[in-house]
Design a protein that fits this description.
Radius of gyration: 24 Å
Strand order of the largest sheet: 1-2
Number of strands: 2
CATH topology: Butyryl-CoA Dehydrogenase, subunit A, domain 3
CATH architecture: Up-down Bundle
Mean pLDDT: 75
């Protein structure tokens, strides 16, 4: 009887140790996976930071800050599937911190190309891209962030609301106003004959 109790105790201890080992291994695997996601997201983070700031050096600094904070706060990320939006939220917070510290009005950039590109479209594409860059850079930062997150990165309204820490209704309102301002600007340019807009345009990623 005593021997059985000892065996049960040993078996229970072994199971507990195995459980701890599995959790440790899972934690290591999670960290490696997160580092891979972070490495693969650097280019997208930089592209977004540059579209918000139009400053290569500042964009690079913001990405560096984002990666540093992401690694430092990794334990707060409970769902690895949500890492994408979580990283962009950190980026948005880094920009907000910079904006508050410097009190600067920042500019941004967005690119568009025709839906079906052909060599004949090259000149027109360049003209359209230049006009859209100017139009996006003229948007208020709040509108520019929403437009680029939705139309450049393809985030859902809910994801953008989480990234920027604003209500979904605010996301929809800013997106509508931003898109309307861009459309009005480009139609006005087209009406003046400065550039002929294609029937369909899409973003470059």
């Amino acid at each position: 009887m005593l021997a059985r109790r000892r065996l049960d105790t040993v078996d229970s201890t072994d199971k507990s140790q195995r459980g701890v080992t599995m959790r440790v291994l899972a934690g290591i695997s999670q960290k490696r996976l997160f580092k891979t996601i972070l490495a693969n997201s650097r280019d997208r983070l930089y592209r977004m930071a540059f579209s918000w700031t139009h400053d290569p050096a500042l964009a690079d600094d913001l990405v560096q800050q984002t990666c540093y904070q992401a690694l430092r706060k990794q334990r707060h990320l409970r769902d690895i599937d949500a890492a994408d939006a979580w990283l962009f939220r950190i980026l948005a917070n880094c920009l907000a911190d910079h904006h508050r510290a410097r009190r600067e009005v920042l500019s941004g950039e967005e690119f568009v190309i025709v839906e079906k590109w052909t060599p004949e479209h090259a000149t027109q594409e360049d003209q359209v891209a230049q006009r859209v860059r100017k139009a996006v850079s003229a948007l208020p930062l709040a509108h520019r962030q929403v437009v680029t997150l939705v139309d450049l990165e393809g985030f859902s309204y809910a994801a953008v609301a989480d990234i920027l820490d604003i209500p979904v209704g605010t996301v929809m309102s800013r997106l509508s106003r931003g898109r309307r301002a861009l459309r009005d600007h480009l139609l006005d340019v087209n009406a003046r004959g400065e550039v002929n807009l294609p029937a369909k345009v899409r973003r470059i990623k």
